[in-house]
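seq:
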Amino acid sequence: MLTEERQAIIMELLEAKGIIRIQELVEILNTSESTVRRDLSYLEKKKLLKRIHGGASLLKQKREEPSMLEKAATNLSAKKRIASYAASLIQNGDCIYIDAGTTTLQMIDYIIAKDVTIVTNGIPHLDPLTEKGFMVYATGGFVKPKTKAMVGLGAIEGLKKYRFDKTFLGVNGIHLEYGFTTPDPEEAAVKRTAMELGQKVFVLADDSKFNEVTFAQIAPLEDAVIITNSEAEEVIEEYRTITKIEVVKS
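struct:
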């Protein structure tokens, strides 16, 4: 089978299924795994798909933003591992920022440090944080109905009152060329401000976020340490030349 034929079949399968595994392609195309991997790499460079652990997926629309419920059900095991590791970095007496999002929300269960002061723009974060007895400040701002994140000028002005030992952020996309991105420019501005105010900045992102680009840039990759799960190993080697990556084993 010609290269162009294989690649056309790969794209047809992706259009139909959304995600496809390498082993499926090996069987369907009756070719070697190395050939499939080369095809996927080529199609990724042409910005036609995104490599994921063990396969490939279609690129998402740049303004597509899943709801909290949709995001909470995705890669939950990986998110818990990432969240647990991130929480272990918090020390007694720290002043920290916890961004809105499902992975950062998972952090709260794992925080064992004492006398921690926490600022957040995540409405769902407030109850579990106060129930654990932390001193909690909300940024203020406009509440996004879909993700329950506080954004806009009110959130940014609220943030500027504080400085953080550590900033913990979620993102929608991580890309070698375009850096950290999110679908909403207003939310990108809040995240960017929180990064600028943090002494140490961590981005919590499971393997599905790599090689993904959404509408609004937050910051370049070198502005934060990425915490991710071990399933990302297949796609992150190039990223290590730009920024530090902490990989959490299963």
